[in-house]
Amino acid sequence: MWVLLVVAAPAGLGTASLSAIVAYLYVAGSQICHQITERSFAYGGVQFPVCARCFGLYLSGALGAALAWLWSPRQLRWTRPALLVAAIPTGATWALEFAGLVGFSNISRALAALPLGGVAGWVFVQMLRYDSESHGREIHHSRTPARLG
């Protein structure tokens, strides 16, 4: 849903009846993204509420989550290594840009974010499925019990 709202937001700003509502999408986007114009996709000359890298993360996260629902639940043995490997393209492009060594296009930023978003979406849904299938059994194993207060 968020991905569809991000894509539709530029068109909604041009509509008098929707512009006030769509403005809230841009405010929400500003809380999670830098929204630098040069690093954002645009539709009809109006930038998306998030940058290209964030858009790639959200798009692939939604696709990864959808795919995770289609397949039967899997054990989550390789979650951390999978996330680490999937983060390499995003981390590399960010680090190279931050260091001033390379400037990437918005398409490159979005494409580099696809593996991380896809794996994160898949892991998120698999964790939800794992929790829901535990049927009340203790699923968190800790040597020290949690203490409140």
Strand order of the largest sheet: 1-2
Q: Which regions contain 5 or more consecutive residues with pLDDT less than 50?
A: none
* Class from secondary-structure proportions: mainly alpha
Helix content percent band:
55-70%
Please identify the oligomeric state: single chain
Radius of gyration: 19 Å
Secondary-structure map:
Blueprint: H1 2-13, H2 19-32, E1 42-43, E2 46-47, H3 52-70, H4 79-98, H5 106-132
Antiparallel strand pairs: 1-2
Helix pairs in contact: 1-2, 3-5, 4-5
Provide an overview of this structure.
Helix 1 crosses helix 2, helix 3 packs parallel to helix 5 and helix 4 runs antiparallel to helix 5. The protein is mainly alpha-helical. It has a two-stranded antiparallel ribbon with strand order 1-2. The N and C termini lie far apart (38 Å). The chain has 2 domains: 50 residues, no CATH class; 81 residues, no CATH class.
